[in-house]
Amino acid sequence: MSRIAAATASCDFYIEQTPLDGIPYWDTGAPGLAAMGDYLDRPAEPGNAYEPVDSSAAAIAAQGLLRLGRYLSAAGDRYTKAGLAVLQTLLGDTYLSVDPDHEGILLHGVYHRPNGWDRAPEDDGVPSGESVMWGDYHLMEAALYTQRLADASPYLTFFGPVEGSQ
Fold this sequence. Notes:
The chain is mostly helical. It has helices at 3-16, 55-72, 77-90, 133-150, and strands at 155-157, 160-162.
């Protein structure tokens, strides 16, 4: 399988197996999802009684969708639109922390669900409201990348901007 085929297959799976707003639950095979009915046909629900959402995974996915869309140009329009939709959701009131005393930027990240390391605010066993540093990092990275696309700025790499690219 080529790299492009693998990337598009991964992104297609993400789009098809994620709720309407592009925010996934912490695991596509999480046992509590069976109790949530048609959870893929509606926006994700932080604070539900069954499984936590994972905004940090969404921030990483948004970046990947946007970068694949850019790489594929016109053929990548589906991925660009999906990445922008995920980013728009993450930058909304439900996921963006505005509390100056909160320890992070992006709410509803998952640290390590199987080991129970995530705080459940209602003590019901379902984590929500927590931030993780990689979620904050990838949200900022996706937002910066989107701004650079909007401004037609050079593509950034670890070795500096690539002139003549978007």
